[in-house]
Amino acid sequence: MLTNTSHPEWLRDWRWPHGPDVAPKPPNLVISQLPGQAEGYAFSLNDVPVYEAPSLYGLAYLLPSELLARVRYHRFDDGLPVALHFEPDAEDPWTGTMVATFERAVELADLPAFRIRFANEVRVPGAQGEAAPGA
Fold it and tell me: Where are the domains of the chain?
């Protein structure tokens, strides 16, 4: 999982090897598009799916798909997994905020997961007025 699959730059070079000064792709690495993947899927490296998701720039996460042993969502009194209510704006009765509440319990399997740091500086993309990498 990466914040932006255009970074690190060597990964971008492996996917789009155009230009005079690109990082060479390992000869046994196959980059492909697997059908039927979940939202956020970008591509696969040797049949290992790579996803984009909000996280810190400079870090990648390697998570086995079996890590999520169970995810349960709470059901509210009406039987739904989300409770919605409207909070009107005190100054304008025609506007307000829709508030959604949900609860979940996540059980993780006893499996290894890895955080890989690929940049000297780890930061929130777009923080302090910066453009997010690749934007």
Answer: 1-63+113-135, 65-110
Burial of residue 112, with CB atoms counted within 10 A of its CB: 0-12 exposed, 13-18 middle, 19 or more buried: exposed
pLDDT digits (tens, 9 = 90+) for 97-111: 999 999 989 899 999
Q: What is the pTM of this model?
A: 0.61
